[in-house]
């Protein structure tokens, strides 16, 4: 999960910038960011190529906590739900239930890392002489706790739990289901199967999770107090920008989730294979 994060975070940075870009420019100046490639090019030009990896440190923190819990607990929770006497493939609804459970539990623990990641990614080019608000990930945790209170580290917990429960269920359950279908169709349990299953998981997760992902990014990136919470953000976004705003950044979001799932599941399958070969 950490390796996948490092490979795909430039796309995630573009996604966050697009999602945070509201409708203030409507009827006025042209929006600063346009499209995944355009946004990445603008960020690299104005802030340097390294800015595309803003938030990589809390991103790794997030994957160690959230990724470890959501992936590591998925099989045990799925087996718990299906019962020890079950034989055959696990029903899809129980795969979804297991994914939602581990996604919610994992992000409840890791939410502060997500907050810091979004805050760091949202910080654009600063005027000359103006220091960064968050000089590092570890400093950011302390700054937010000191200025906004410890509870503020869990700002956006509701949309974050909603987003990650839905996306985790979509990713793990759809990967599981697509892989089972491909194996049943005669494909071997190898890299092509894992590649196609990962892409399928990324597409399903993007379609299902984009609306809550937009709300999560906006609530977490809102240090000015524009939104009073999850539902206030939903109402204001829909009223001011239309329902289509909930799919802002869809292309970079799919680019991110699709590539992330491919890298993560390919790596996971290879690690599991190596451990089986060594009887671990």
Report on the structure:
This protein starts with a helix and ends with a helix. Helix 3 runs antiparallel to helix 5 and helix 8 packs across helix 10. The longest helix has 31 residues, at 92-122. 71% of the residues lie in helices and 0% in strands. By secondary structure, it is an all-alpha fold. The protein has helices at 2-20, 36-47, 56-72, 74-82, 92-122, 137-148, 157-184, 191-220, 230-241, 250-277.
Compile the SSE list and pairings.
Layout: H1 2-20, H2 36-47, H3 56-72, H4 74-82, H5 92-122, H6 137-148, H7 157-184, H8 191-220, H9 230-241, H10 250-277
Summarize the structure.
This protein has 280 residues and is an all-alpha fold. The protein has ten helices and no strands.
- What structural class do helix, strand and pairing data support? mainly alpha
Question: What about the largest sheet?
Answer: none
Shape: globular
- Gyration radius, in Å: 19 Å
Poorly predicted segments: none
Helix run count: 10
- Cα distance, first to last residue? 20 Å
What percentage of the residues does DSSP assign to strands (E)? under 5%
Helix content: over 70%
Tell how many strands the DSSP assignment holds: 0
Mean pLDDT: 87
Q: What's the helix-strand series?
A: HHHHHHHHHH
